[in-house]
Please model this.
Amino acid sequence: VIPSKYIEEAVNAMASLPGVGRKTALRYVLHMLSRSEEDVEHFAKALVQLRTHLKRCKVCQNVSDFDICAICSNPQRDNSTICVVEDVRDVMAIESTHQYKGLYHVLGGRISPMEGIGPGDLSISPLIGRLTHTAVKELILALSPTMEGDTTAFYIYRKVPAGSAFEITTLTRGVAVGDELQYTDEVTLGRSIALRTPYQKG
Amino acid sequence: VIPSKYIEEAVNAMASLPGVGRKTALRYVLHMLSRSEEDVEHFAKALVQLRTHLKRCKVCQNVSDFDICAICSNPQRDNSTICVVEDVRDVMAIESTHQYKGLYHVLGGRISPMEGIGPGDLSISPLIGRLTHTAVKELILALSPTMEGDTTAFYIYRKVPAGSAFEITTLTRGVAVGDELQYTDEVTLGRSIALRTPYQKG
Model:
C-alpha cells in the first residue's frame, strides 16, 4: 500500500536495478526522502552524467572518460599483448591483480545463441582489425570458463588471420587458491590433474 | 580499479544507499550503462521529483502527494481512532493488513538519546494538538517493542492532557503467528504466558 504516486514511481525506478525487489526499492526510496534536496539532485546528476558523458575507448572498447582510455594511452603498458575479455568488470578484476601490463580488448559480451547474441553483436571485427594493423606478440583469450565463453574464444581463434605470428594463450584453469579439493567440481579437478604442472616452491 | 571519474561518481552515489557496498554499487552502475539515455533520465527524474514534490500530510505527517493525505481525507475512515506510529513504513505495514480503519499519526522516529533524537524532533506536539481539538475515542500507541519505542510510548502517554476521555491502547505482544515456541525469545514468551488470553477457536 504505497500512499503516493511519487513514491510509487521512485520505487519502480529502484526496483529496475538488478537484484532489487520492491521491499528493498522502498527502503532505498525512503532513504532518499531523508536526504537533502541538493543531495538527491547530486545523486540523480551522477547517473545522468554517467550515461551521457561516458565513452567507449576507440581502441579497446573499454569504458573511458576520453576517446582513448587511460590504459591504451599509457606508454608504460606493453602494447604487444592484448587480453580479450567479455566486459568492463573483467578489465577491473584483472587490473586489480596488478599482474598484467598489456592492453585489453572488451568484447561487450559473449556469443550466446540462447540470448540471441551473435558474433556481430560483439566487437570482434575491431579486434581482428587491431590484430592485423598492430605488431601483436600475444593474444590472451580471457573469457569465462563457460560454454558461451569457450564458444566465443573458439570463434575468435578461428577468425585470427591465417599466418599470424603471435601466440594465442588463455587463462589457466584449475583449483582456486584456498579451495578445498573435496569441494572442487569434478570437471575442474579432472582438468587440473590431467594438465598438472611441475611442482614449484611457494 | 575504476577507469572513469563518471563511473566513480555514480558508484559513490549508489554506494550511499543503505546496505549497498561498492561491489553492488558497481553492478547497479554498469546496469545503468546498459540502459537507454531516456531511461536513465527517467530514473533520475523519478528521484528528484520524489524529493521535491512529496509532501507531509498536514494532519498526520504521513507522506502524501497532497496537503491532506488520502487516509485523512477519506470520509470512510473512522476519525475517532488515531494510531501513532514511528514512520511511513509502519503505516504501509498496518494498511496492508486491512485490519484497521482509523487514522494515523506519524511521529517521524522515536525518542533515542543515543542517536540524539529528543521529543522535540518528533511530531508529538501536533499529536497532542489533534487529541485536544478533535473528538478522539481511542489512541493506539503502535510503536516498536524496543527500549526506544517503549520510552516514546510512555512519553506520549504522560503528555496526554489530563482528564482526556479516550482509551489508550497498544499492540498485543506475543509469540508471532507461525513461530516455534522453542525459538521464541524468553522475554516475549514470558509476557505471552503471563498475559495469556482465553482460548478461542480458529
